């Protein structure tokens, strides 16, 4: 796992607002506790609202909003496939699935998702 991927994963774990020990974070990321200590120091130095320390644990002091567009190609494909399936099989949720597919196609044109056809009146 690259350092960037690990840092992203650490932020995602910390977003739950709970205190996490370095050992817990190290297990989740498959690295040493020492690596977590360095990562947390680097994250705090760059301005992320991470507080805590060795022996105490780490927590995000403030909510952190990350862009929702950080998807892999496979994730986008799975999402689009699932939404199409909902449109076809669940009349109660078809409209919502169509709207979500439209939003994804608009926000992530590079993903290659075709926007749904206009809703029939």
From TrEMBL:
It comes from Fuscovulum blasticum DSM 2131. This is DNA-binding protein. Residues 6-59 form the Helix-turn-helix type domain. Keywords: DNA-binding. The lineage of its organism: Bacteria, Pseudomonadati, Pseudomonadota, Alphaproteobacteria, Rhodobacterales. It comes from the Bacteria. PANTHER family: PROTEIN PAFB, PTHR34580. GO terms for molecular function: DNA binding. InterPro entries: CBASS_pafABC_assoc_protein, HTH_11, WH-like_DNA-bd_sf, WH_DNA-bd_sf. It holds the Pfam family HTH_11.
């Amino acid at each position: 796992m690259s350092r960037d991927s690990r840092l992203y994963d650490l932020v995602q774990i910390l977003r739950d607002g709970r205190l996490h020990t370095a050992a817990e974070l190290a297990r989740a990321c498959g690295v040493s506790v020492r690596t977590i200590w360095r990562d947390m120091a680097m994250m705090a130095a760059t301005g992320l609202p991470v507080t805590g320390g060795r022996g105490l644990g780490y927590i995000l002091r403030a909510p952190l909003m990350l862009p929702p567009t950080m998807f892999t190609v496979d994730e986008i494909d799975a999402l689009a496939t699932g939404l199409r399936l909902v449109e076809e099989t669940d009349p109660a949720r078809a409209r919502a699935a169509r709207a979500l597919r439209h939003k994804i196609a608009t926000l992530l044109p590079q993903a290659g998702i075709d926007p749904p056809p206009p809703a029939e009146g």
